[in-house]
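Work Package 3 (structural annotation) set out to generate three-dimensional models for the target panel prioritized at the project kickoff. During this period the team completed the workflow that converts sequence records into discrete structure tokens, so that structures can be stored uniformly alongside our sequence database. As a representative example, we reproduce one entry of 331 residues exactly as it appears in the project archive.
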Amino acid sequence: MLKWINEIFKFSWLDHLVEKLVENVFGVSVTTQLGSSIHFFIYDTIKIIILLGIMIFVISYIRSYFPPEKTKKILSRFSGVKGNIMASLLGIVTPFCSCSSVPIFIGFVEAGVPLGLTFSFLITSPIVNEAAFAILLASFGIKIAVVYVITGVIVGVVGGLIIGSLHLEEEVEGYVYEIQMGEATIEELSKKDRIRFAIDNVQEIIKRIWIYLVIGIGIGAAIHGWAPAPLLAKYAGPDNPFSVFVAVVLGIPLYSNALGTIPIAEALINKGVGIGTALSFMMAVTALSLPEMILLRKVIKPKLIKAFVIITGIGIILVGYLFNAIAHLLI
């Protein structure tokens, strides 16, 4: 089954088409550094946009059954490990970015959702979403995409469980518990409304993220064509025991999303960088970005932010080493 899906999404027809375009229209051989970069940029852009549109539509249709108010109600019914698992799974199909971290956090706390469950949701949402899955599928194939989703959920579940066990509720700013957001009406949608919602979401998300995508693919194309493979393999390859740790530390101060970092990760991996090293860098950028920490400081105190960064960071590092260790089974 996995082999069959991989064959569908290999896009070999597109690869040959772009190769002819580069050589016949641009007059550059794809075996040269310039031709290789141009081919990478055009091929990845078309391939990712196709898969992105498909995945956003499918997940958006599913997402129409889980508006924020319904998500809060579902999570408020769960506790313990089951609650953390549900929170992480809902994080996959629920819209999330750093700009929405504060209202989502306030809404969950106000609804009585335990702190550990809230963080399982906050950890998983930026790491695992339909856009990231689509690009991972396009860039690395079904095996890596599926394992990435599973490990992203595990990081969210375990991270939320640990934060919940620390009983840091007093590290949430006092005013958050006093906010009364009120009960919102949950609108029931028809099948036609859900399809319209999914189509609108495809248009809105691609319109919002295309610039990150183009920049990321552009950087990836430059790395693909000109970066010295032996040097990258030596210092960031899977045999370097410190590469994953350094990648996570370097990723935290940066700000981007999975869409902009996956094409870069793809180019780095093609140059010999360890899969786990590249993907852990991407996870750190998306889940632990400095702007998100600044926004979260509005609702939680430094001690809880520190716990969130350390616990999530350790989880991402472990995932990176896991990917490096089992890379031979995924490629």
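The first helix runs from residue 2 to 8.
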